[in-house]
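Issue 218. Parser rejects a valid record. Input:
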Amino acid sequence: KTAVPPVISITTVTYPNPFIDRVNFQFSSPIAGPFKISLFDVMGRLVYYKEKTAINNIVTIDNLFFAQGEYFVKLTAKNFNYSTNLLKKDWWNKLTTGIAFGSPPES
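Output the parser choked on:
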């Protein structure tokens, strides 16, 4: 018989959501290897793709300067899959709500 490896549950926290230009994915346990990150708009079109490696159990995607709205993100790594909905806010809303003034957010 072949031994079946145990299933390990990994909790993923996505923040901030809604986001302006950067999103973090924090994992409860280390995940080996690079992640394939795919971000889709509400029409199902791929609007962002990148491969990244987690640092301190966190993967950050940034420079997400596209239209305000709802998006779907999918993270895939060896023996790991995660997906969730994200809400993108325009950086201009950040300026007009008094959170920041003078220039676009830092990237």
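Fixed in the parser; the record now loads. The longest strand covers residues 69-77.
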